[in-house]
Amino acid sequence: MRSIKPPREMREFAQVLSEAGKRCFLVGGAVRDYLLGRPVSDFDVATDARPEEVKRAFRRVIPTGIKHGTVTVLWKGLSVEVTTFRTEADYGDGRHPDAVAYADTVEEDLSRRDFAMNAMAYDLVSGILVDPHGGQADIRDRLIRAVGDPVERFREDGLRPLRAVRFASQLGFEIEEATLKAIPAALDRLALVSPERDREELQKILVSNRPSLGLRLMEGTGMLGLLLPELAACRGVAQKGMHVFDVLDHLYACVDAIRPDLVLRLAALFHDVGKPGAKVERPGEEPTFHGHEAISADGAEAILRRLRFPNAVIEAVCHLVRNHMFSYDESWSDAAVRRFIARVGVDAMDDLLELRVADGTAIIGRSVDPRGLEPLRDRIRAVLDAKEAFGLSELAVKGKDLSGIGIPPGPAMGAMLKELLETVMDDPKLNERGRLLQIAGKIKAKYGIE
Ligand code: ATP
Ligand code: MG
C-alpha cells in the first residue's frame, strides 16, 4: 500500500486550525486514493471547528454547503472543502439528510460514511491514520464493504448501492458479499433518490475503465431495471447477421470499446436502445430492425431528460445515435459524401466515425481495425479541402436575395432554399448568386409563387 503524502499546503492549512485549537483531518476519497496510489485532486477536510470558526480562521471562504456544515476555503492555490464533524443524519425520506447534527469526534463522523475504504481520517498535524472500520484491509483486499449493517445503511440512503457499483467500476474492486446481497432490499429507497444524484454516479460509471462491469452489477442487482428499464428490455433480444451478442451485451461491448468521453459513452450505450421496439419477426426469416436509429434517438432523449443531463449533452448524444446507421462504399457519389457531411456536420464527424468503429467491434466481439474507415475519411477530407461542404450558411443566396426577386419570407422560401442547397450539393459549380437566382425564378411556380 502507498503512503499518504498530502502537499505541503495542506499541512500548512491544518496548522492554521491547529493554532486555533481545532483538529484537522483529511477524509474520504483523498485518503483512499493516496493509499491506492491514484491521483488526488479533491481535498476534503473534517474538523471540530464550526463553519463560523472556519470562516474566522481563513480569509477566502465560500459557504458552499453551509446547510450541511460545509464551507470551501481557497488556500494557496488549493480549494479545500471543510466540513464540521457530523453524526449519522436521519435520511427520513431516503433522499437527503433531514438536518445536520454536529458530532464531537472524528470517529462519529467516520461511522456515518458509506464504505470502510471511504471512512478513514488522516490527521494532517500528527500524521496518524484513524481507521476504525478496516478501510486499509479492504483496500489491500480490493473490497467495497458498507460501514455497519449494509441493509440498514442502504435503506438510510438509497443512493449508496449505486455508489458501491460506481466504485467497483472505477477501482476494479469487488463488492463484499453481504454488501452486495443487501442491494435488492434497498431498491425501493433508490427509487426515491433525486435523478441528479443518480446521474452523477451513472456518469462516473460510464467514464470509468470498464463501464460494462458496473452495468452488469446494476443489472444483476435490479438497479438497471429500476433506473434504465429501456436497457434492461434489451436483454435477450437476439440479433441477426454478423452479430454475436444480444442487444444488451452488444451495448455493453460498445460502451467498453469507445473512448471514455461522456458523450461518446452515452451514445455507445444507447445507440440501439430502440431495437426491441423496432424488431419485426417473420417465421423462417431473420428479424429486422428498420428505423431503429430514430427510435433509439428518441429513447435516448427521453432517458437523458429524465436523468437531467444538460441539453448540450442530450443533443450531441441523440445526433450521433440518429446518424449511426450509414454504410459507406466506393459507389458513393461526391454528392452523397456532401450530403452526408451536411447531415452529420463537420463538428460531429469524428465522434460519429469513432462510434462506428466501436459499434463494429461490438458486433463481432473483437477489435475492428479503425483504418477500415480511411477511404471515407479521405473522401470527406477531399470535399472539405475543395470547400465543397455546404450548409445553408455557405449557400451563395440568402433569404434576402430571394425577397429581392419577389419571393416573400415564409415556409415556401425555406423550402426553396433547401432545394437550392440540394442543387449545389449535386453540382458545386452552381453555387453562385446569379445562377441560383435564375434557378429560383424557374422553380418558384412549383412553390405556389407567381
Ligand atoms: P471521488 O473521488 O469520486 O470524489 P469520493 O470518495 O471523494 O470519490 P464523494 O462523492 O466526493 O466520493 O464523497 C466524499 C466522501 O463523503 C466519501 O468518501 C464518503 O466518505 C462520504 N460520502 C459521500 N456520499 C455519501 C453517502 N451517500 N453516504 C455516506 N457517505 C457518503
Ligand atoms: Mg470526492
In short:
The chain has 450 residues and is an alpha+beta fold.
Outline the structure in words.
It is built from 24 helices and 9 strands. It has 450 residues and is of the alpha+beta class. The protein has helices at 8-19, 29-36, 51-57, 106-111, 135-141, 150-156, 160-171, 177-181, 187-190, 195-206, 211-221, 223-227, 229-232, 247-257, 262-270, 275-278, 292-306, 311-322, 334-344, 346-364, 374-385, 399-404, 411-426, 433-443; strands at residues 25-27, 43-47, 61-65, 70-75, 78-84, 121-123, 129-130, 143-144, 174-175. The model has no long low-confidence stretch (mean pLDDT 95). It binds adenosine-5'-triphosphate and magnesium ion. Magnesium ion is lined by residues 28-29, 42.
* Average pLDDT rating: 95
Q: Which band does the percent of strand residues land in?
A: 5-15%
Secondary-structure class: alpha+beta
Termini, distance in Å?
A: 82 Å
| Net shape | elongated
How can the largest sheet be summarized?
7 strands, mixed
Q: Which small-molecule species are bound to the chains here?
A: adenosine-5'-triphosphate, magnesium ion
Number of strands: 9
- Which residues form runs of ≥5 with pLDDT under 50? none
Strand order of the largest sheet: 3-4-5-2-1-6-7
Task: From the alpha carbons, calculate the radius of gyration and give it in angstroms.
Answer: 28 Å
Q: What is the number of helices?
A: 24
Q: Helical residue percent?
A: 40-55%
Break the fold down into its secondary structure elements and pairings.
Elements: H1 8-19, E1 25-27, H2 29-36, E2 43-47, H3 51-57, E3 61-65, E4 70-75, E5 78-84, H4 106-111, E6 121-123, E7 129-130, H5 135-141, E8 143-144, H6 150-156, H7 160-171, E9 174-175, H8 177-181, H9 187-190, H10 195-206, H11 211-221, H12 223-227, H13 229-232, H14 247-257, H15 262-270, H16 275-278, H17 292-306, H18 311-322, H19 334-344, H20 346-364, H21 374-385, H22 399-404, H23 411-426, H24 433-443
Helix pairs in contact: 7-10, 7-11, 11-14, 14-15, 14-20, 15-18, 17-18, 19-21
The chain binds adenosine-5'-triphosphate and magnesium ion.
Magnesium ion binds next to loops.
